[in-house]
Amino acid sequence: MIDKQFDKETFKKSVKDNVKFLYRRKLEEATQEQLFQAVSYTVKDVIIDNWLDTQNAYEKQDPKIVYYMSMEFLMGRALGNNLLNLGAYGEVKEALEELGIDINALEDQEPDPALGNGGLGRLAACFLDSLATLGYSAYGCGIRYRYGMFKQEIRDGYQVEVPDAWLEEGYPFELRRPEYAKEVHFGGYVRVEYDQATGQNKFVHEGYQAVKAIPYDMPIVGYENNVVNTLRIWDAAAIEEFGFDSFDKGDYKKAVEQENLAKDIVNVLYPNDNKMSGKELRLKQQYFFVSASIQAAIEKYKKTHNDIKKLHEKVVFQMNDTHPTMAVAELMRLLMDQEGLGWDDAWAVTTKCVAYTNHTIMAEALEKWPIELFSRLLPRVYQIIEEINRRFIIEVQNKYPGNYEKIKKMAIIYDGQVKMAHLAIVAGFSVNGVARLHTEILEKQELKDFYEMMPEKFNNKTNGITQRRFLLHGNQNLAAWITDHIGPDWITDLSQISKLKVYADDEKALQEFMNIKFQNKQRLAKYILEHNGVEVDPHSIFDVQVKRLHEYKRQLLNILHVIYLYNQIKLHPEMEFYPRTFIFGAKASAAYERAKKIIKLINCVADVVNNDPSIGGKIKVVFIENYRVSNAELIFAAADVSEQISTASKEASGTGNMKFMLNGAPTLGTMDGANVEIVEEVGQENAFIFGMSADQIINYENHGGYDPDFIYNTDAEIRQVLMQLINGTFSSDTELFRDIYDSLLNTKNCSRADQYFILGDFRSYAEAQKRVEAAYKDEKKWAKMALLNTACSGKFSSDRTIQEYVDDIWHLDKVTVTKSEAAEK
Ligand code: C3B
To answer: Can 561 be counted among the known catalytic residues?
Structure first.
């Protein structure tokens, strides 16, 4: 450990001082929360020195900057991660011990900043970690939601959403930067003015409502390299302080409106995953952070550069899904209306500055906004999009004369709607999917017309995860063991982890590897007992599915299979069965009724199965409440089996799959998303693959022919499971799960029976589960399989992903930061 920055005695003194100054208390009198704050402030002090050094280095070296534009950053707790990346975790842990403080308890005090829903938001967080660690200049740009993802409570088996007031106690790792505040304008109208001097039209936006955007910066600490980048999230405030002034002037109503608009915009994260909400407020949120971020980026550029036409040489905006796609038009607006460029010059710069990542093909996630709403809220931006559309349609016409189908399918504005993906593709210089299969589907299916017209824009960037949070921090025993065996290089170069392969047949190593897994299972069992009141046996197979709840992710397939197993054991009590603990964790969007019913079903099945003495504890079902980044770290470390069972073609990539693999849990999954590449790395024999292929599914979707009723009618065991949903087996209210039952069959209430092919894949899944059991029974075989999963996970580091973005899309310059002497500061 390098540790010049953390002299133990200075550290201890600083913590004591902080407790005194912040709370007027002695260390012994401080609460855990107060200790957390005091320690965090001490750590932040050290970070700030590095932050300044980084700033200086960037100023001197003038590297190109990527602005990662994202509505979501699912950061997870900062304290432990920052300490690890500073290279000070060990020392600080010891120093705290000397003060009688347990670092784990302290870390548990920190709220998870949950400014994201799931995969997309967590990917953004992993990317920031990798950018800092690789030494690239980057800003994350987002929103400082007062309420992030809701806290999930389970009451009587139902999900209850509780507001997550993460800022209540004050968040120690943020820095308010009022000096960088920006104004953002909504509504009003555009007046066109002829400018005699230039002979050009000028577009003047008037009658708008203004909101002030105030940035809060969070440090993103690179791993042991002195780099500290910035996540800049925007808060909103009224322009005029609300006061008696406005009251007197009769502006009372206006002042109240401004105040309310500001409060509303940043109040809460929309809890949708893979679904667009379509709400006006959401559109406001998008424009709010996009406009503020781009204004700040231009201002920063202009401080040291004087030719705005060369903006693209120093700046690139990556749009994380279509949510920030307004960036295209906003950048055009600023370049024309503020910087004075003409259309062609502005377009030339814009189309070299923006790039787009697509994260889903789910139709309900594709953002389309009604013209009426868009043009009313953002009249000038809308005007610009209309012009982009007009010019694009001419291009399409030139390329495909007379082909009006093309225009219908490709136009940015069509049928009264603005299609954000089309805008992103037309303006972006790069369009990427997030796993190989996903990118192929984009090219061949969803975005086929665009791919044919502009193939050079399309590329794949398979997702990755940061091994520093999900192994070094989340699984400290395994991390130490790996370092003992192959050295520490894997921490910043995960491809090195393949060196573990030489231990695949080493009995002692395998034994140690599995012992660590067992300890992690004990740790999770303790968590489950404390949080769920359920006792689970760490000797059983921990079979885990944790991710957002969505029908396409098929938690329903998993729980139906549990019911099937339960029936089997009851029918054949003598049959051999290796004890299994089925662990679920998932939040459902608050308005997604069926998803919430599936949670209730899982809990009802758990109640029956866990309390049926006749099955002798062979199956346990646990639903972990409030699944989030912090408990995810415990869960991945303890998993034996990784459930990745989405309907093929629907999961763009998945990233949980990579976290399980890294921690030595083989994948039980479909050939979907990044599972395909996981299997390629680890080998068919070290994964459990089942189900229909993406091609088969897409073929059914396009041509019909899938009939779940046939399966129901011909497979008595499946029929029994479905009947149990509505015959009182799991709830005395036989109507409770009727909707789920109906959704699977051609009933009068269901338009697309079994849209996600649950019955179609059921037998194949059950058979794969049998293979899992057989493999697990063979202890040595399983240990080898588990170790090989860890050893073959090298590709799935977000460091690799980021390097690919840098090489193919962003072309950033690497920066080195050396530590200055404290005296110079
Ligand atoms: C998710 C996808 O569902 C995942 O397959 C993918 O791994 C991640 O993004 C990251 O690329 N996704 C999401 O979390 N929210 C959306 N709105 C769209 C996609």
So the answer is: no
Is 553 an active-site residue? yes
Handedness of CA 509, 512, 514, 516 (dihedral sign): negative
Given ligand 1 and candidates 357, 359, 436, 554, which is best to mutate, with the most ligand atoms within 8 Å of its CB?
Answer: 359
* Most distant pair of Cα atoms in the chain: their distance: 94
Percent of the chain with pLDDT over 90: 94
CATH fold match for the domains 62-76+112-156+164-366 and 467-797: yes
Residues 541, 786 contacting (CB under 8 angstroms): no
- β-strand partners of 320: 357
Return d(Cα 19, Cα 30) in angstroms, integer.
7
Among this protein's residues, is 659 annotated catalytic? yes
Q: Are 409 and 662 within 8 A, CB to CB? A: no
Centre of ligand 1 from the C-alpha of residue 123, in Å? 8
Asked whether residue 824 carries a pLDDT value surpassing 50, the answer given is no
Does pTM surpass 0.90? yes
Q: What pLDDT score was predicted for residue 635?
A: 98
What CATH architecture does domain 467-797 belong to?
Answer: 3-Layer(aba) Sandwich (3.40)
Judged against a pLDDT cut of 50, whether residue 2 lies above it is answered with: no
Q: Is 355 helix (H, G, I), strand (E, B) or coil?
A: strand
**Which atom of ligand 1 lies nearest, measured to the CA of 272?**
17
Instruction: Check residue 1 and give its pLDDT.
Output: 34
What pLDDT digit, counting tens, does each position of 196-241 carry? 988 889 999 999 999 999 999 999 999 999 999 999 999 999 997 6
Rounded distance from Cα 121 to ligand 1 centre (Å): 8
Q: What is the predicted pLDDT for the residue at 619?
A: 98
Exactly one of 185, 284, 517, 659 is catalytic; which is it?
659
pLDDT digits (tens, 9 = 90+) for 404-443: 999 999 999 999 999 999 999 999 999 999 999 999 999 9
Rounded CA separation 786/641 (Å): 9
Q: What pLDDT is attached to residue 244?
A: 56
Res 278: pLDDT = 92
Choice between 3 and 292, residue whose per-residue pLDDT is larger: 292
Ligand 1 atom at shortest distance from the alpha carbon of 463: 11
Pick the CATH number of 62-76+112-156+164-366 from 3.40.1570.10, 3.30.565.10, 3.40.630.30, 3.40.50.2000: 3.40.50.2000
* Catalytic member of 359, 457, 521, 561: 359
Say if the ipTM goes beyond 0.90: yes
Catalytic entry in 133, 230, 439, 655: 655
pLDDT band at residue 243 under the 50/70/90 scheme? low
Q: Using most ligand atoms within 8 A of CB, pick from 73, 117, 120 the residue to mutate for ligand 1.
A: 120
Half-sphere CA count of 196, side-chain side, radius 13 A: 0
Strand partners, 668: 643, 688
Output the residue whose Cα is nearest ligand 1's atom 13. Answer: 120
304 as an active site residue: the answer is no
How far is the centre of ligand 1, averaged over its atoms, from the C-alpha of 122 (Å)?
Answer: 9
Residue 253: active-site member = no
Q: Residue 781, Cβ neighbours under 10 Å: how many?
A: 14
Could you tell me if residue 76 is left (phi over 0), alpha (psi between -120 and 50 degrees) or otherwise beta? left
- 368 given a catalytic annotation: no
**Mean per-residue pLDDT, 504-530:** 98
Of all protein residues, the one whose alpha carbon is nearest to atom 12 of ligand 1 is: 120
Which residues does ligand 1 sit against, CB inside 6 Å?
Answer: 117-120, 123, 273-274, 321, 359-360, 365, 434, 463, 651-655, 673
Centroid of ligand 1 to alpha carbon of 84 (angstroms): 27
Q: Where are the domains of the chain?
A: 62-76+112-156+164-366, 467-797
Does the pLDDT at position 309 exceed 60? yes
Q: What's the gap in Å between 384 CA and the centre of ligand 1?
A: 29
* Rounded Cα gap, residues 801 and 418, in angstroms: 31
pLDDT of residue 4: 53
Residues 362, 275 contacting (CB under 8 angstroms): yes
